[in-house]
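User: ok so my PI wants both of these folded by tonight, can you help

Assistant: No problem, let's get them done. Here's the first:
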Amino acid sequence: MVSLEEEILKRYAQKSEEPSSAAGGEGKETASLEDMILGGDAASDGPEEREAPEEDILERYTSEDPESVEAPEPVAEPSPGGDEEMTPGEDLEIDALAIERPAPAMEPRRGPPAMPASPEEVVETLRRLREDVGQISELSAEEENIVAAFSLAFLKLMEPLTKALPVDVSVLPRELGLVERANVVPKGDLVLLYADGRMESVDLTERDNRDLLITVVSDVMPRFNNLISQRRDKIEERITFLSSVTRELQTIADSFETVG
């Protein structure tokens, strides 16, 4: 592509070859070309200022050969602030990309392979198992004795106090069903009254009902303690009353003896 200075020099060479009519005309042409090249800097020292001829030359140049002028490159405008929120559509596109990209599969950690137990270890395990079974048998026999002693003591203490102790039905296991009322009788049975009118009795001393025995005893022991306290208070009240009455009666009896 031809530059502006080359085009000016080319035109100057063409004009210099043509015959001129007068020397003054040649000087004028030379001065005008110099002004075009230098941009009017040399002529600006005169008393009158002249306009720079670059604009006219550039206008003629662009009108004759518009394709020779390079179009200015478009300046990219700054994008909006990076802190602006994304639209819902952009969020969905990002989410879709995140879903399409599968996460790298992680291989499960494998520990060292289990080594088979040696014959010595097997024998030692069986020995410990035999000891545990022996202890279970001893503990079961001791539990039987304790439960029997508990039932006898509970019977002896409960008979003079009350005929039945109420049990909170909320502590009973769900396997018993929809129980409306529950009571413990002195012989150690749990009497259950259902909403449909049925009544059942559960022997708490049986081996299968040991956990239920612990639950029931934990619930009724505070009530049992209150019964004993109430019984003591009643006895004290009776003693106080009878002592006062007895003293008065003795005084009256002594008075009759004196009169008689």
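One down. Here's the second:
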Amino acid sequence: MAEPHKHRKDNIPDYDGSYDPVDLGPVKQPERPQQKPPQRREVPVRRKQPASQKQPAPPLNAPVPKPTPQAQQPSAEKQADRYLVLFGIGAGVMVLCLLVLGFLLLRTVNGAGESSVVTLETVPETAPVTELLETETEPPTTEPPQTEPPTTEPPETEPTETETQRPRTWDVLYEELLTAELAAWGSRYDLVDVDGNGTPELFISDGDFMDAAVRIYTVQGESAVQVTQIKTEEGSVTVVPDAHQVLWTSETWPSVFHVYLLDGTAFTPQEELTYQSEVGGSFTRNGADVSIYEFSRAYDKYVSQRSVQDVGRAYNFDDIGDLPDKAASRTASQPVFEDPWWRDYLVEPEPTTEQPTRPHGFWDNLIPGIQDYLY
């Protein structure tokens, strides 16, 4: 325990003796700030340099160098502005150089084009240099220049490689025609030798609609010529190569069944059958009215032949090559006709008129048909 303060005046600070001291308890000592330990400071030690590294002392009469003021370094903003200015100047110079180069290149290209045109038009065929020197040294003569009369002979042209290698045969002519032909939608072609001369005819059909046109081509000399153009029922025609015939039906009123003979470039009519299916019906043969039975016999005579073919739409324009093989594959018999509508009106047997009986004897049995000549 702390001892009580004694009534001593020396225990009271700043006591002047004007009052009696009282017992105030223990006196608190003022707190003293803690003192930090002193920090140790390192002092650089100067080492003595050897005599060999010591710099010689300047002479006594040497001028004392004046201190030079340090150059003021520019700030960062000023340096950035300076860089921007330099970059702008460099970019401008580069753009100007590009413009100058483009202009010079354009002038060079235009000058080269003009010089090439002028050279092609104006530069004549020049003689060797020695001949030019001789002509310059000779004195000019007053004789008029001798001019050769113009010749009417055409210039000789050398045959091209394709002309020398490929002769102008029918397949080459037809291939050129099919290549140059602007094939419309639905158009097709076919190859059949109708007239029997060894060269097939080319049939080009414009479509399979009503009254579609069919063009027939043949070879004459060294060119393909068009024989005729006909309008058919569905863009196809019927041919009979053994009889050199072309058959087709025109959907008119009345309907017409045409029979034409094809011989080279000649296309001549051979027979014409007309029919119409109105009430009662009517049939004609080459303009004359006939019965349905006679009309049917004339019609069957053409459509029942062995070499009947329906041609015109066998190949597409995308397949033009190998024309000889295509023509050879179209020589087989291809019957296409169906029974026409008038066969429903035929009555079997056919009604006939009574004919006078002819005598039947020994000669008729011995030689059949002898009575056709006797009576």
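Residues 168-342 form one domain. The helical segments are 76-122, 129-137, 161-165, 170-180, 292-303, 323-328, 362-366, 371-374. Good luck tonight!
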